[in-house]
Specification:
With about 425 residues, the chain is α/β, with parallel strands linked by helices. Helix content is about 45%, strand content about 15%. It contains 16 helices and 14 strands. The strands form two sheets. The chain has an eight-stranded mixed sheet. Strands 11-10-9-12-13-14 form a six-stranded parallel sheet, with helices on both faces. Helix 2 runs parallel beside helix 3, helix 3 runs parallel beside helix 6 and helix 12 packs across helix 15. The protein is globular. The N and C termini lie close together (about 10 Å).
C-alpha cells in the first residue's frame, strides 16, 4: 500500500457533466466554468463533458475539443439544428447517450463524476455509468424535474410517467456520495426523496463579486442609451424571465404608479415570459417600461448598477425546486431587492427583510406599490439597504468562499476514494 496516496487528491480525475460550458454565457455554463477553472488553477485534473451547442441559439456548434484555462473540454456530438420542441428533445437524447458513453470511457475507480441538471434527469445515465466504473458520484442540483414540470401545470408530470421519472431520479440521488443543493429549501426536498441528510450538502451559487462592484453612480451612459431620465428611480430586472417568475403583481403595481413619471421599470435580458411581459405592457399602454438585451459579462457590473433596486420574483409553488441565484449579483452591486415571493421562501432566508429587501406576496399589488414608493421616495434608505446586501454577501456568499467549499469537499472525496482504492488493491 502506498501510504502517501491518500495525502492529496489533486491527481484524482474530476469530470463534470452539463450541456453548456464556456464560452457559452448561460447561467449554468458560467457557474460551472468558474468552478472547473478554480479547480484546475489549484492543480486538479479537470475534464468537462458538454455539448457543442450555444444556449439560446438553434444553430451553430463549438469545437469538439479544447483546453480552456487548464480544463479539458470535451464536446459531444450535437444536432446541427435544434429548432422547436422536437429539435430540443433530439438534442437532449443525443446528449444523454453521448454523456453516458463518455462517462464509461473516461471514468475509473476513484474518479469523481459531478453531474448537473441540464438536461433534466441527466443524473440517471451518469449514475449508471458511475456504478459500472466504481466512480464517486456527486449530483449538483440546480433545479428539480419532473416536479418543475408539475408546477408548470403539465399533467404528464403528475401521472404514472412523472412518478416513474421521479423514482429513477431519486434512485440516482441515493446512489451519490453527496447531493449538492443550492438552497436550504431544495435540500429539504431532496431529503424527502429518501436521501440521507448526511449525504446532502448545501452550497449556494455565487456571483463574480470581485468584478461586480458597488457604485453610487447609476450607470449614466446606459441610462442615456435606454432613454431613462437621470433622476428617475429605476426598478430593474436582469436575466432570463421564466415561467417560475410571476409578473402580474408587478403589472398591477405599475398600473397604479403609471402617473409617477419618476419611476421606471427596466428589464435587461430575455426569455419567453419576457416577451409575454412586453406584450402585456404594450396592451396596457404602460410607458414606464424599458426593455434591453442581455449585456456582455464584462459590462455586468455596470448593467446591474443601472437600477436603484432590483425586482426578483418566484412563484410559491416553485420554492425549493429552483433558487433565484441572481440575488448574489444584485448583492454584489450593493442594490436592495424588492421581492415578490412567499414570506417563508428561499429569498427571505438569504436576505434580511426590512434591511436588505422589501417583500410582497404574489397578488398583493398594494404591498408592492408601497415597497416601490418607499425606496423611490427615500433614496438614502435604498443605498443603506444596498450596503447591507453587499455586507451579507461579503460575510457569507463570496465567490472565493464558495469555490473553496467545493474544493475542500471534492478533495475530501478524492482522499477517501484513494484510500478505498488502496485497500482494495491490498486485498
Amino acid at each position: 500500500m502506498n501510504s502517501g496516496a491518500a495525502e492529496s487528491s489533486a491527481g484524482t480525475p474530476i469530470i463534470f457533466f452539463n450541456r453548456f460550458y464556456a464560452p457559452d454565457h448561460s447561467a449554468t455554463a458560467q457557474i460551472l466554468s468558474d468552478l472547473a477553472e478554480h479547480l484546475a488553477d489549484t492543480g486538479h485534473d479537470v475534464t468537462v463533458v458538454t455539448s457543442r451547442a450555444i444556449y439560446g441559439q438553434e444553430d451553430g456548434l463549438l469545437a469538439v475539443h479544447e483546453l480552456r484555462r487548464g480544463v479539458a473540454v470535451v464536446r459531444t456530438a450535437t444536432p446541427a439544428r435544434r429548432r422547436g420542441m422536437a429539435g430540443r428533445i433530439v438534442a437532449y437524447l443525443t446528449y444523454y447517450i453521448m454523456a453516458f458513453f463518455e462517462a464509461l470511457r473516461r471514468a475509473r475507480r476513484g474518479s469523481i463524476l459531478v453531474v448537473k441538471t441540464d438536461p433534466p434527469l441527466l443524473s440517471v445515465p451518469i449514475a449508471i455509468a458511475a456504478s459500472l466504473r466504481g466512480a464517486t458520484l456527486v449530483h449538483w442540483v440546480q433545479d428539480l424535474y419532473p416536479e418543475i414540470a408539475g408546477a408548470y401545470g403539465m399533467r404528464l408530470a403528475d401521472g404514472p410517467i412523472g412518478k416513474f421519472l421521479a423514482a429513477v431520479r431519486n434512485w440516482s440521488f441515493r446512489r451519490a456520495a453527496t447531493v449538492v443543493a443550492i438552497g436550504d429549501l431544495m435540500a429539504e426536498r431532496v431529503e424527502r426523496m429518501g436521501v440521507a441528510r448526511d449525504r446532502i450538502t448545501v452550497i449556494p451559487n455565487w456571483s463574480n463579486d470581485i468584478e461586480i462592484t458597488p457604485s453610487l453612480v447609476r450607470s449614466p451612459s446606459l441610462r442615456r442609451d435606454w432613454n431613462i431620465p437621470e433622476a428617475a428611480f429605476v426598478l430593474e430586472y436582469s436575466g432570463n424571465l421564466g415561467r417560475a417568475h410571476e409578473y402580474e403583481t408587478l403589472l398591477d403595481a405599475a398600473t397604479v404608479l403609471r402617473d409617477r413619471l419618476d419611476i421606471v421599470f427596466l428589464f435587461i435580458g430575455g426569455g419567453h415570459v419576457s416577451d409575454q411581459l412586453a406584450a402585456r405592457v404594450a396592451e396596457l399602454g404602460l410607458t414606464s417600461f424599458r426593455f434591453a438585451p442581455y449585456q456582455p459579462r464584462e459590462r455586468l457590473s455596470e448593467s446591474l448598477g443601472a437600477g436603484d433596486a432590483h425586482w426578483v420574483s418566484l412563484r410559491p409553488e416553485f420554492e425549493g425546486l429552483v433558487v433565484p441565484s441572481k440575488v448574489f449579483g444584485i448583492c454584489a452591486a450593493a442594490r436592495p431587492v424588492i421581492a415578490v415571493c412567499a414570506m417563508d421562501g428561499e429569498l427571505i432566508r438569504l436576505l434580511e427583510p426590512g434591511h436588505a429587501c422589501l417583500v410582497a406576496v404574489p397578488g398583493d399589488a398594494v404591498a408592492l406599490v408601497t415597497a416601490i414608493t418607499t425606496l423611490a421616495d427615500d433614496r438614502v434608505r435604498g443605498d443603506k439597504m444596498g450596503a447591507v446586501a453587499r455586507d451579507i454577501l461579503d460575510r457569507h456568499y463570496t465567490k472565493a468562499r464558495t469555490l473553496d467549499r467545493w474544493r475542500v469537499m471534492l478533495d475530501h472525496m478524492g482522499i477517501v476514494g484513494a484510500a478505498q482504492q488502496n485497500r482494495t488493491s491490498d486485498v
